[in-house]
Amino acid sequence: MVKYCVKRLLLSLLILFGVSVILYVLVRMMPTSYIDSLLGDPTLADFEKRKAELYAYYGLEENPTFKGVVSGYWDWLVNFLKGDMGVSFKYNQPVEDVIFQNMGISFTISFISLILQLIIAIPLGIKCACNQYGKLDYTATVLTMIGISFPTFFFGSLVIKIFALELGWFPVNGIQSSLPVDATGWEIFIDQVWHLVLPMFVLVFLSIGSMMRYTRTNTLEVLNADYIRTARAKGLSEHTVVYKHVFRNTMIPLVTTLAGILPGLFGGSMITETVFGIPGIGKTAYDALQAGDIPFIMGYNMFIAVLTVIGILLTDIMYAVVDPRVKLGK
Predict the structure, then answer these.
(1) What pLDDT digit, counting tens, does each position of 4-61 carry?
(2) What is the mean pLDDT of the chain?
(3) Is 84 helix (H, G, I), strand (E, B) or coil?
(4) pLDDT level of residue 325 (50, 70, 90 thresholds)
(5) pLDDT tens for residues 213-251?
(6) Does the domain formed by 102-322 have CATH 1.10.3720.10?
(7) How far apart are CA 144 and CA 222, in angstroms?
(8) DSSP H or E segment with residue 103
(9) What is the distance, to the nearest Å, from the Cα of residue 160 to the centroid of all Cα atoms in its chain?
(10) Helix and strand counts by DSSP (H, E) for the chain
(11) Does 329 have pLDDT greater than 60?
(12) Residues spanned by CATH 1.10.3720.10 within the chain?
C-alpha cells in the first residue's frame, strides 16, 4: 500500500506539472486583459504611456512572446513551490488569502447539498431497482432525466422567477437581507439559511439524477447475480438480501464518483453562485476570469487540480476498502 501511494504521488506531481504548463499557456493567450480594463478611454493623451507603465508594473507583455511566456511561467512555478501563488490583480490580495476567505460559504453549500444528494439518490436508486418498471421507477426516471437535461443557469433562473419573484417565498440573491442593527445571532443565522435554500435545491435537483441512475443500474446488475439468488434460496428476508448483500457490492462502482467530490466541495459551484449572487469561491473565480486576473486564475485552477489528484488517489484506496479483492501493492 505504501509503495503504491508513493508511486502514485510521484505520478501526480508529473501530472500537476503538465497541468500547470497547459494552464499558464492558455491563461496568457486569453483575449481578456486586466490591464485593458484599467486603462479606460483609449483616446486620452497619455493612454500609451499609462499602458506601458501598467504592463511593466504587472510584469506582463502586451504581445506575449515565447521567451516571455517561458520566463513568466518559470517565475510563477518557483514562487508556487515556495507556497506563494502571487497577488491577485483584481482583489489586490495574495491569491491564497482570497481563496480561503471565500471558500467557507461554498464549502457549506456544497457539503450540505452532497449529504442531501447521497441521502436521496442512493436509497431511491436501490428502491427503483427493486421495483423495476413500477410507478416509482418511471416517476423517478422522468424527474431525474429532467434534472440531468436542464442547464444550471436556466434552471436556477427558472427557480428564482417562480419562488422568489412571483411567489416571493425566498430572496432573489445574496446570503443576507438588510436586518435591523439589533438583530440577534439566531435571526441572522435563519436569514442566511433562508437565502441558501434555493441554491442548494438547484444543486441537489441537478446532481441527484446521475447518481440515482448509476445506483439503479449497479443494483440491477447485482440483483441478478448468482449469490443473490443463493441468499434468497436460504430463506433470508428481502431487506437483508438488499441492504446487506446487494448494497455493499453496489457501492463498489459508486466509489468512482468520489474522485469529483473533493474538488466539488472546496472549489465552489461557479454557475450556481453566479446566478444567485453568492459571494463564494466559484463566483469570485468567475469575476477574476472575466477581469483577466492571471495570478488568481492560475492559483485557483491549480488548487482545483491538486484537489482532483488527491480525490483520484483516495478513490483508488477506497476501492481496496470496499472490495477486498482489490490489491494496491503493485
Answers:
(1) 778 888 888 898 999 999 988 888 887 777 777 777 666 666 767 777 777 776 767 6
(2) 81
(3) coil
(4) low
(5) 888 888 888 887 787 888 778 887 777 888 777 777 777
(6) yes
(7) 22
(8) helix 95-130
(9) 22
(10) 15, 0
(11) no
(12) 102-322
What's the sign of the alpha-carbon dihedral 15, 18, 20, 26?
Answer: negative
Burial class (CB in 10 A: 0-12, 13-18, 19+), 4: middle
Residue 193, amino acid: V
Q: What is the CA radius of gyration of the chain?
A: 25
**Displacement of CA 237 from its chain's centroid (Å):** 40
The contacts of residue 175 (CB under 8 Å, 6+ apart) are 105, 192, 195, 196, 278, 279
pLDDT score at 50? 74
C-alpha cell at 24: 499558464
Q: Which three cell numbers stand for residue 122?
A: 442512493
Handedness of CA 49, 50, 56, 60 (dihedral sign): negative
Torsion of CA 240, 241, 247, 249, to 10 degrees: 140
| Gap between the Cα atoms of 35 and 51, Å rounded | 7
- Cell 512555478, residue located: 77
Average pLDDT over residues 155-170: 88
Distance CA 299, CA 20 (A): 10
- The span from the CA of 4 to the CA of 14, in Å, is 16
Q: Which of 39, 66, 61, 58 is nearest to 50 (CA)?
A: 39
Contact 295, 28 (CB under 8 A): no
Residue type, position 194, single letter: W
Q: How many angstroms separate the first and last alpha carbons of the chain?
A: 8
Strand partners, 94: 87
C-alpha cell at 4: 503504491
The reported pLDDT for the residue numbered 240 is 80
Partnered with residue 87 across adjacent β-strands are 94
Long-range contacts of 87-94 (CB under 8 A, 24+ apart): 87/295, 88/288, 88/293, 88/295, 88/296, 88/299, 89/34, 89/58, 89/291, 89/292, 89/293, 89/294, 89/295, 89/296, 90/34, 90/287, 90/288, 90/291, 90/293, 90/296, 91/284, 91/288, 91/293, 91/296
Side chain identity at residue 4, one-letter code: Y
